[in-house]
Amino acid sequence: MTEEDFIVDGSAGGAKRFTFTNGERSLYFIPMIHIAEQPFYDRIAAEVERLKLNGADLYYEFIDFDTASVADKLRIRAMLGMLPSPAFYAENVSDGLVAQDNEAFLGFPGGQDVNVDLTPAQIADAYEMLIGPLEISEENLSTPMRDFVLPTADPARVTQITIDARNRHLAAVIDAAPGNVVVLYGAAHGAGTLQELRALDPEWRRAPTF
After folding, report:
1. Per-residue H/E/C for the chain
2. What is the pLDDT of residues 14-46, one digit of tens each?
C-alpha cells in the first residue's frame, strides 16, 4: 500500500479503516486528520466504540506539548516553527470545520486506551542525536509560545524524526501488543508504519474483505 491509499479528506463520508492481520492478531488502522468536519470524527468515534467492545485496545497519537518543559517547547519550535497542539489547531479552524479532539475517542468500554506517541523530549532528543544541538533563536526565545517562529532545523532531518522515527516506534508498539489493536494515527504514517511492521513480522498483510 502507498501513502495515497491512507489519505483522508475530512469529509462526513471520508473516514477509512484498514484491517491487517498476521494470522494471530488484528490491526485496525484508522487514518486521522487534525482538522475535519464533525461527522468525520463522529463516524470514527462510533467505529472505535464498536472495536473496543470487541476487545481491541485503542492506540492513539498524541504529543503532549502542554506538559512539556519550556526548554523542550523551544526545541520543538526550533524544529517545526510552532507547537502543533490541539489548541493550535482549534485556533486555526474555518469554514465550519472542527479540530480533532481525542477525548471524543477515549473511555469507551472494552479494551484499554493507550497513548503510544513519542514525547516532545524524545522527538527533540532524537533530532539532536542525529544532527547535533538545536539552535534556539532570539525570535524563538522572545515570541509567545502560541505563535509561529522561523524554524532553525533542517527540514529533511525533521521529517526523518517526526514521520520516520515515529513510524518505527509505532510499529514496534503494535508488534509487541498482546492482542488486537485499533490505531488512530495521522494519515501520513499509514504506509510507513505498515512497512516498518512487516519488517518486524513479514506475516502482517491486509485482511480480505467480504
Report:
1. CCHHHHCCCCCCCCCCCEEEECCCCEEEEEEECCEECHHHHHHHHHHHHHHHHCCCEEEECCCCCCCCCHHHHHHHHHHHCCCCCHHHHHCCCCCCCEECCHHHHCCCCCCCEEECCCCHHHHHHHHHHHCCCCCCCHHHHHCCCCCCCCCCCCHHHHHHHHHHHHHHHHHHHHHHCCCCEEEEEEHHHHHHHHHHHHHHCCCCEECCCC
2. 999 999 999 999 999 999 999 999 999 999 999
